[in-house]
Write a sequence for this structure.
């Protein structure tokens, strides 16, 4: 779909198509719908980022809490969103050994106990070894730093998901 088609979508269709570019947060897409028309994919992405940036810290943490644990119960039980399932599988998180699953579960639990939200990292931009290392390292961050890192990862995920849904400006010129 190109940006003109996205701009022409009725509210319900826009939210249905773009509602999970920020994991389990269709309210964000619903809010930015009224900012149409978007000149291009970048403008849509910037609108979403501006909405997120304007949220209070508690709202940003709410966005982070909408994300599943990496290699967690949702992946094991098959209840991840389609997008998260593809992203985690692409990073090899669906093929962990039982020892690796236990290790990830322990790190995820420690992280959530420390910060109050799940560890968020863009799985499509990392492999499982990097994610485990980052999870271990980021456990040492201050709360505000980690909230900021998590939101930046959310934006990376959003960027890639939007690219998967919309033709980029370069492809539009072909």
């Amino acid at each position: 779909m190109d940006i003109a088609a996205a701009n022409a979508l009725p509210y319900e269709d826009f939210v249905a198509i773009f509602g999970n570019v920020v994991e389990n947060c269709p309210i964000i897409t619903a809010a930015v719908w009224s900012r149409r028309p978007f000149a291009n994919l970048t403008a849509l992405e910037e609108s979403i980022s501006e909405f997120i940036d304007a949220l209070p810290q508690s709202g940003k943490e709410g966005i982070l809490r909408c994300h599943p644990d990496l290699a967690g119960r949702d992946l094991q039980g098959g209840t991840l969103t389609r997008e998260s399932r593809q992203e985690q599988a692409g990073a090899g998180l669906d093929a962990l050994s039982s020892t690796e699953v236990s290790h990830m579960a322990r790190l995820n639990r420690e992280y959530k106990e420390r910060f109050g939200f799940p560890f968020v990292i863009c799985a499509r931009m990392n492999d499982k070894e990097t994610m485990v290392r980052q999870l271990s390292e980021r456990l040492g961050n201050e709360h505000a730093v980690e909230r900021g890192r998590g939101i930046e990862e959310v934006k990376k995920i959003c960027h890639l998901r939007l690219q998967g849904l919309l033709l980029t400006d370069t492809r539009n010129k072909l």
